[in-house]
Specification:
heterodimer, A: 362 residues, alpha+beta, Lipocalin, 9-stranded mixed beta barrel, 11 helices, 10 strands, disordered N terminus, B: alpha+beta, OB fold (Dihydrolipoamide Acetyltransferase, E2P), 4 helices, 6 strands, disordered C terminus
Chain lengths: 362, 146
């Protein structure tokens, strides 16, 4: 048991050392905490294998990697493809020339599987090409799956805001073109929205004048709360105190956009365990960095994943006046009842000019 | 301002609708060009969207520790919103005029005397933290101010 614990502590440091010095694990084994004994119970070491995507090579990962550590460890870390390709041979080197050491072919299969199916993008360009990571539905009874209430906090900010580890939380994927994921938002902005954004600066940003950020207020480093009642889902963001009322009583959007609003008019229906929220009737935004028009149409598919502890919001946006192509993104939120809400008011004191040096004001 | 916009366009996918850092993108700050400031607190604004510390700075250093005497003067240090500061343990009285502090943060790209806080220290050695998204830092930026 002690040996295993030592190994656990020693491996990351050893891996880092190896990456820095190009030393093989076989060499480290002589220097450091000793070679890894093959797991006496390979079945238990495969714990976590089911968390990896089911594709050719997953069994190889189970067979090869579980000889020294469980698969949970792999499931909890996403490295870049390049890192996996470097790491796998370093790891398998530790088994040396034992008769039952994995063959070169096995090692290649493991490295190929991890770099193809369990890597994180290394560059923004690569990120653009990757398909969104869709999580499976949470295995909950339907009545429970259809209860979205709780306090939710965007997953990507957990570590960054010192709110605890984001380990194991799915990674959000920002808005990009839905038809050609290579196109980011600036690439699909029409001349109309470019012209409108032209006057935008950090000093006159409409948000600094208390203009509403709109329905995607949850895409911020601030938590939001869902009050789920039978005929309505109410989303309350800490950010700007934004409130969205999403109607589940079967009503339709008022035709003809009679009352354009910053948050729009939201109605929803259930598709299995997924709440499909349709929002229209927006008013044209002020000159934001990314402005939108009154044709803005937002569809959100909201469901609980990861045993119900993570909320997935799959966002599709159409706005023919503002964007040449529809936009798509997926955002993940961790359920966190410990969050204490603060006040995020807009008193109209959003004036950055006193802080801009006089000679450099716009 | 054009430079901001170009930088922001590059990070556009992060910065839409309340994207990266509350009301404006962090792209206006260059995390790869930090300044280390030692000075005296003139004012501390506990406010939204972002709290602000105003320092009278006599000693400016770059990240290599090289002094930049021509940069001495009044600097603004941008912190976070009151909600996030509250969750991190700050209060409205955390900094008082006259306090001596040393702070490190990414400089604003237009050359103004302004940084966005990574971390800092009070004269008594108390450490406090802002956002430090540099890859080399995200692994150990977990301490809370006390």
């Amino acid at each position: 048991m002690n040996a295993r614990r030592t190994m656990r502590a020693g491996l990351p440091a050893a891996a880092l050392y190896a990456l820095l010095t190009s030393t093989t694990y076989a060499q480290i084994a002589q220097l450091g905490p000793g070679g890894a004994p093959p797991d006496p119970n390979p079945k238990s070491a495969r714990i976590g294998l089911e968390r990896l995507p089911n594709a050719t090579g997953r069994e190889d990962v189970g067979a090869v990697c579980s000889r020294c550590h469980n698969i949970e460890r792999i499931a909890e870390q996403r490295r870049t493809a390049r890192q996996w390709r470097a790491m796998v041979p370093l790891m398998t080197d530790r088994l040396g020339n034992a008769a039952d050491a994995p063959s070169e072919q096995d090692v290649r299969a493991v490295a190929a599987y991890l770099s193809d199916h369990w890597s994180r993008p290394e560059t923004p360009a690569e990120a653009a090409q990757k398909d969104p990571l869709h999580e499976p539905d949470a295995p909950l009874p339907l009545a429970q799956a259809r209860d979205l209430s709780g306090t939710w906090m965007t997953s990507m900010w957990y570590t960054l805001l010192n709110m605890g580890p984001s380990k194991g939380l799915p990674i959000s994927r920002g808005l990009r073109s839905a038809v050609n994921p290579k196109n980011d938002i600036p690439a699909v902005m029409t001349q109309w929205s470019r012209d409108k954004a032209k006057t935008w600066t950090i000093y006159n940003d409409p948000l600094t004048k208390c203009n509403s950020p709109g329905p995607l207020a949850y895409n911020s480093p601030y938590p939001f709360e869902i009050l789920h009642t039978p005929k309505r889902v109410t989303m309350i963001s800490e950010y700007f105190h934004e409130v969205r009322r999403v109607y589940l009583d079967g009503r339709q959007h008022p035709p003809g956009n009679p009352d354009p609003t910053a948050m729009g008019h939201s109605v929803a229906r259930w598709e299995g365990a997924t709440l499909v929220v349709d929002t229209r009737n927006f008013k044209e935004s002020p000159a934001f960095q990314v402005p939108w028009s009154d044709q803005f149409h937002l569809v959100e598919r909201i469901r609980r994943v990861k045993d119900g502890n993570v909320l997935e919001i799959d966002v599709t946006i159409e706005d023919p006046l503002a964007f040449k192509e529809p936009l798509h993104g997926i955002f993940y939120f961790k359920k966190d009842p410990t969050i204490e809400f603060g006040e995020w008011n807009c008193d109209g004191f959003f004036d950055y000019e006193p802080f801009a040096p006089k000679e450099q004001k716009p | 301002m054009t430079r901001f916009r170009l930088a922001l366009a590059a990070l556009g996918c992060l910065a839409i609708w309340a994207g990266a850092s509350a009301h404006h993108s962090i792209a206006m700050f260059d995390d790869n060009n930090p300044a280390i400031l030692t000075g005296t607190v003139q004012a501390f604004y506990w406010r939204n969207p972002h709290s602000m510390l105003v320092l009278d700075v006599a000693d400016v250093k770059n990240i290599k520790g090289e002094a930049e005497p021509e940069q001495a003067g009044v600097w603004s240090v941008e912190l976070h919103s009151t909600a996030i500061m509250m969750r991190r343990g700050f209060t409205k009285d955390y900094f008082k005029p006259g306090d001596k502090v040393t702070v490190t943060g990414g400089r604003i790209r237009d050359g103004s005397k302004m940084i966005r806080l990574f971390n800092g220290k009070k004269a008594d050695g108390t450490a406090f933290y802002g956002d430090d998204f540099r890859p080399e830092s995200t692994g150990n930026n977990t301490s809370q101010p006390k």
